[in-house]
Amino acid sequence: METSWRKGRISYERPRIMGILNVTPDSFSDGGDHYRSASEHAFRMIDEGADMIDIGGESTRPGFTPVSAEEEIRRIMPVLLELAGSADVPVSVDTWKPEVAEAAIDAGADIINDVYGLRADGMMELVASSGVAAVIMHMHGDPATLHSETMEGDAVAQVVGFLKERKAAALDAGMREDRMIMDPGVGFGKSQMQNVSIIGSAGEFSLGCPVLIGASRKRFLKTQLPGMSADEATAEMSLRAVRAGANILRVHNVAAVRDALEKHL
Q: Which residue range forms the structural domain that includes residue 171?
């Protein structure tokens, strides 16, 4: 099982780490230049062991304020252009908007990380025709309701069904299997116990593709792992995910997760 990207292929003989690089206005508050700080942070994560970098220009945290495609592009473009030109790891852009994805692909993005599962009008066709890889994520509901509605019933079975349908649609659109990554969407319209169940069933979401788990610093960790810091809990839940079959871990603190993997796997 491998993932193709413009400079080669990623294999999964070991877990891979995707470092989160948010470029929303409140992401870097050190008083320096916003984009310089973001770029420096990205290269620091690569030095710490990140196998991929995921740039996001719109928050999806509880209470987030949606932004226009134009604003999202304005936020991500300076950092994306710098990383695409000089980073030796795949650069992903976290967006569900086709306009943002198209601009990102034109600027050199290697992966589109779509929290909406390539469901927006034109997104599937864009990704398929461009030849980039894509993270296909399950979200219960839509971006406007994801934190106000929670799934009912067996989340694992429902998510597997959704990802099967999305994979079939992607293949029909012309995407290659080695350019698909499956993400069951921890925290996106799921209860705490559903999140735990999904992480413990990570391998079931593969469908022949790598599985990405993104539990980093999410609210349910505090309840599930009391007494741990957010990053300690993230590292512990990441270990559980890998033991259950996850291939990629999307995290904020790359060094902490890398150290946990090296120590316990």
A: 14-264
